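ok so for the tutorial part 2 we go from a plain amino acid sequence to predicted structure tokens. step 1 is just haveing the sequence, like this:
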Amino acid sequence: MWLTTRGFGITVIVLFGICILQASYWVFDQVGFARVIHDEMVQVLGDQAQWANEHLSEDQMEPWVAGHPHLILEGGVLRINPERMDLLQSSLDRRINRYRWEGGFFLCVLLVGIAVLVRNVRQHGNLLQRQNNFLASVGHELKSPLASIKLSAETLEMREMEPARVRKLSERMLNDVFRLEKFVGNILDSARLEAGTRRFQQVSLPLGVMVADVCREVGARYQAVGLHCDTKGSCEIYGDEIGTRAVIQNLVDNACKSVQAAGHGSVEVKLLEAHSKVELHVADGGLGFPPDESERIFERFYRVGSEMTRKTKGSGLGLHIARAAVEADSGRLVAHSDGPGKGATFTAKWPLHQPKERSA
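step 2 — the prediction. this is what the tokens look like for a chain of 360 residues:
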């Protein structure tokens, strides 16, 4: 591109600035012109009164006043009619106010246009950055597991190995396939959400059982991470089964990856009922994030930091999909962190589903 996003924004802002200066000058010029016309009219009326006083006799003044209503005769002297002066002043005030309102409205439109343009340029720049991060993420997310699967398959093909070794390689390949499946699934779910074709089917769900299952599944992949799961009761909700499981998997998996990347901390998963709500708290002592980015991390493709320097892998879609799934079930998903290196807590809340008791 011959003009960068920043350069384009600066160029347009300069043009808007010139337009604002021109509009301001137009208002100033029109107000000054209106005052000049007013002063000239007052001067003309004064000259007429002065000429009549110098050249007309008293008998001629009354007929002159009848033909010139802007003049009055007082004590044998012609003067400008005060009512006429008030009309002229009122006309001048109205004209100046009109110019000011028109100019002010035009300036407001320009300022709003500048604000919208700056916002759009920033969003465009952020979108380009996210797209670049996403493309880099795609490279990492596809290349690493594919290379691992290829290496494991070649190892299995080239040599005879003990069953334990074969089982270990098979588990590695399954984990890599799961990672690829999750990555592709996130992309497809995100595309369906944006297109509005994702359908959520609400059914009664025992959230406690689902959380325990996911914790066991994720814990098997992150055995070096201290994952503690605390569920109380079934904690039934009314929601989409696939979407709800994806929410739990994303939150727990992200927490484990964060702790693993930080090299310290543990993951605490707690499920409880509170005030007619079911709350899922996933807290980790991992990487954390700046507090002012607690909302941005749920945006599509957004990930904290640069794709080339961050310690965890991902597409930037998991949390976006998780929030959409929770909100589709009339719930809410929020995040909190005290800062980088201080861990993070994600809290998902759903309305508590009270099953109807069957009559005997």
